[in-house]
Every structure is written in structure tokens, then in C-alpha cells.
Amino acid sequence: MGAVDTSASPGGRVTPARPGLWYGARPAWQLYLERGIHREHHRHIRREQGIGVSWRDSTGWLAYHHDGLDVPGRPDPIPVTVVFFENPPYDTYGITPPNYPRVWADCGAVSPHRMPDDALCLWWPWSPAEQQWTADDGLLPLLNLVRDHLFFEHYWRLTGGHPRGRWLGAEAPHGFPTRRAS
Questions:
Q1: DSSP string across 63-117
Q2: Is the predicted pLDDT of residue 110 greater than 80, yes or no?
Q3: pLDDT tens by residue, 34-45
Q4: What is the per-residue pLDDT across 121-147, written as a single tens digit (0 to 9) for each?
Q5: What span, in angstroms and rounded, lies between the C-alpha atoms of 103 and 124?
């Protein structure tokens, strides 16, 4: 029996590994992740993958580019890029790389929920698992989460931004959790 790799499918189910292929390069992983996405976004999404050279010289990367999500309240569709990294060039805070991709959309927009590299901050790594997106959910729910986030950002800016804008979704603290004194 060959090596066992728990990242062969989006949710980490145990399947035999193919030597030399990281999770994002496996066609079965991509197909599972993409299920349902083409029905709703077939003309708007394209896949790109590579090794090194791009995406900050990560070893392997898989990107999905959406040419523009329709966001309520926004006059024009917003392009979105989701990138999965074999070895992420950012801290994943203990979350496995398939479950913590980087998502960029509406770069440069003022928002209370962005990463230092302008990626969207979509969930807090220490939130309960049911409040976090995972690759098992697929790309369609991730794009829906991105659409909601972009709408919340837009509403937040319309209602005053810093310091009095109103965020419509659930919020979590930023930064590292602090330990409570015992």
C-alpha cells in the first residue's frame, strides 16, 4: 500500500497519495472543490496553477479568478481571486493550507476586515469550526461568503466607515487571542 495523505480531498479524507503532487495539483481535489461552481459561474471563473515564479515564489499554487461577482449595492461586478498555496507565504494559524486560502477582491478598498496584504479577512482562525469555511464546502459557498463580505464592507463605508460605520455581519476580534488569568 502506498503512502497515505490526508490532504488529498478538500476535507482531508484519507486517500492514497500520488508522489510529487500537492493537494492543489490533484485533479480529483480540484473537481471536488469546484462542484457546483460551474453551474452558477461557468462563464466567469477560470483556474490557473503553477509552481514558484509567481504568487511570491510559493512552491505550488492554485488560483481561481472570477471576472466579477455581483454585489448588492455596487454598480459594477467585483473581480475576485482565490489562491490556494502548497506552502502558504502567510501564517495559517494552525489551519491546514487547503482550508485557509487567500482571497483578494476590491483591493485598496477601506475596510475593517482586511489582512496586511489586502486579502479579505473572512473568518477568525480561532472561531468554532462551524463558523469557518473549509475546502469541503467547495468554491461556491466561498464565493457567497466573499459576496457577503464585500456587501458588508460597502455598507460599512456608506454608514461612516472609521470610526462609526456599521458592519452587518458577525465580527470577531483581530490579532491573537489573549489568555485569561486563572
A1: EEEEEEE--TT-SS-EEEEEEEESS-SS--TT--GGG--EEEESTT---SSB-TT
A2: yes
A3: 999 989 888 999
A4: 998 888 888 889 999 999 999 999 999
A5: 14
Place of cell 479579505: 120
For the chain, the domain total comes to 1
Distance CA(122)–CA(59), nearest Å, equals: 24
Q: Which CATH number do you get for residue 54?
A: 3.10.110
Neighbours of 17 (CB within 10 A): 17
Lowest-pLDDT choice from 4-13, 125-134, 168-177: 4-13
Q: What is the pTM of this model?
A: 0.82
Q: One-letter amino acid identity for 79?
A: P
The Cα–Cα gap between 106 and 117 comes to: 12
Q: Could you tell me the three cell numbers for 132?
A: 469557518
As a 3-state breakdown, the chain gives helix, strand, coil percent values, each rounded to 5, of 25, 20, 55
In a domain, 13, yes or no: no
Evaluate whether 5 touches 17 at the Cβ level (below 8 Å).
yes
